[in-house]
Specification:
Helix content is about 40%, strand content about 20%. By secondary structure, it is an alpha/beta fold. Strands 4, 5, 6, 7, 8 and 9 form a six-stranded mixed sheet that branches. Strands 1-2-3 form a three-stranded parallel sheet, with helices on both faces. The longest helix has 18 residues, at about 85-100.
Length: about 350
């Protein structure tokens, strides 16, 4: 049977958890092997029954590991389907983001595959072999600092100045040669040298909201990871420098921004389709820029979900879903202030 109903995923988790405690079986053995557990990552479908399964799982993880970071990468199908099927997927996405994003430290929607592709990528959209390799190139790049010792401030940069924005967009660009890299770096960000000038809005690949315009969006927080791309201005700030930078950004109403650079190029694995990337160098490596961005585009996306939910979700859960989405949306709208902001005033 198709695994499409969100509630079926919840029921499956309950049934399996009754048979044998899922956390005891699947998570705790690995957690006990970690000297310093930093975060738990979950990859799940968000527009099918796996969204319901993951929501139950995240809820249990939050109870068990209350202070640990939980990163959720929510995969949604980019394939065109009949209207009825698309409506069911939209309902599932609304339920997933409403239930999971408030409990996660990072929630990133990923369209598989994105509809807009650059000339440097040759993708067979009907092959999971191709699409998973493409997504991997961005995800492996943007999470690389978590696996390198010098970048111990990655989680703090991800949280931003207020720790409010947890839904991020995954974007990436793939570059040919050194000259093209420098030109792209200079053209997509201005050369004024301040932090806000380095924030970028245009990328070759937009895995989260490829149908929403990014040029008019407001960016709250952006993390850039550059692999093999020269960045002479990049340095790892000390905790003192980072504190001063954040105070200056808050005073000037600038977006939170952090850039990580490594000379390690992205290795195109032997298991990848050989014709996926046309820019891969003879030694099987390429230069990649990947970002996680929290912006007002999230508010636009959730507003569309609210419209769908108010029309087609059953009455008994409509109010909870619509109100939950509304609360999440408000934090990604420009000019929004939290209760703590009013208290400070």
């Amino acid at each position: 049977m198709p695994f499409e109903d969100w509630n079926v995923g919840e029921d499956l988790f309950d049934d399996l958890d009754k048979e044998h405690d899922l956390l005891d079986r699947d998570v705790r053995p690995f957690a006990e092997e970690c000297d310093q557990l930093r975060a738990l990552q979950i990859f799940t479908g968000s527009d099918d029954a796996w969204g319901g399964f993951a929501a139950k799982y995240v809820d249990r993880l939050r109870d068990e590991y209350g202070k640990k970071a939980i990163w959720v990468w929510a995969i949604e199908s980019g394939a065109k389907v009949h209207r009825q099927t698309q409506m069911k997927r939209d309902m599932n996405k609304a339920r997933t983001i409403c239930n999971i994003s408030p409990q996660s430290s990072l929630y990133t929607p990923i369209i598989d595959p994105p509809s807009r592709l650059p000339s440097t990528v040759h993708l067979n959209p009907h092959s999971q072999w191709y699409t998973s390799a493409l997504i991997s190139s961005a995800m492996e790049t943007v999470t690389l600092p978590t696996r390198l010792r010098p970048y111990h401030n990655f989680e703090a940069s991800l949280a931003g100045d207020d720790s409010i924005h947890k839904i991020f967009e995954l974007q990436s660009s793939i570059f040919r040669a050194v000259d093209d890299e420098k030109q792209a770096s200079n053209s997509k960000g201005s050369n004024e040298g301040d932090e806000s000038s380095k924030v970028q809005k245009e990328f070759d690949l937009d895995f989260s909201y490829d149908s929403l315009d990014s040029n008019t969006s407001h960016i709250f927080n952006q993390l850039q990871v550059r692999r093999g791309i020269e960045d002479t201005d990049d340095k790892i700030p000390s905790m003192k420098d980072l504190s001063l930078i954040r105070k200056e950004r808050a005073y000037n109403s600038e977006p939170n921004f952090q850039s990580f650079h490594t000379s390690l190029q992205f290795p195109v694995l032997d298991s990848f389709p050989s014709d996926l990337f046309s820019v891969a160098k003879p030694e099987g490596k390429m230069n990649v820029l990947a970002t996680l961005t929290a912006s007002s585009r999230t508010a636009d996306s959730i507003r569309a979900m609210e419209t769908v939910a108010s029309r087609i979700i059953s009455v008994d859960e409509r109010e909870n879903i619509v109100n939950g989405l509304g609360e999440i949306r408000e934090t990604y709208e420009t000019g929004w202030m939290s209760d703590s902001d009013f208290d400070d005033d």
